[in-house]
Design a protein that fits this description.
alpha+beta; Beta-lactamase Inhibitory Protein, Chain:B, domain 1; five-stranded antiparallel β-sheet
Length: 120
């Protein structure tokens, strides 16, 4: 009979200990290292601002480098794309599209770049 009383007294202690331990989680386990993944062309605003309408393809390549994407079906469009994936943060994506007409810059479109004079 004393064995039955001892096991009844032990059961709440075991339950309490298991609740405390499960609440701790696995904070003591090391986490996997997550690297930053950077893809595409890094385009400083200074370089983008140098590209003007009327420039040739060669001049654009000298300033910005080779485009990441140049379509075989639309040779008059170059896309410069940059993305940075940091662990725990939303991906940072930037895009610059250069349009050509008669091998000269006719239009620029961009997204994800800060305007000059803005602080991040």
């Amino acid at each position: 009979m004393s064995t039955n009383i001892a096991s009844r007294a032990l059961l709440p202690g075991i339950l309490a200990a298991s609740l405390v331990i499960s609440g701790c989680g696995v904070w003591w386990l090391p986490r996997a290292h997550k690297i930053e993944i950077q893809q595409g062309n890094i385009l400083p605003l200074e370089s983008i601002s140098q590209v003007e309408k009327g420039m040739t393809r060669r001049e654009v390549k000298l300033i910005l480098g080779e485009p990441v994407v140049s379509s075989l079906f639309n040779a008059d469009r170059w896309d410069y794309i940059f993305s940075l994936n940091r662990s725990g943060d939303a991906p940072d994506s930037k895009r610059l599209t250069v349009f050509f007409d008669d091998d000269r810059v006719s239009k620029l479109e961009s997204s994800g770049f800060e305007e000059p004079g803005q602080d991040s």
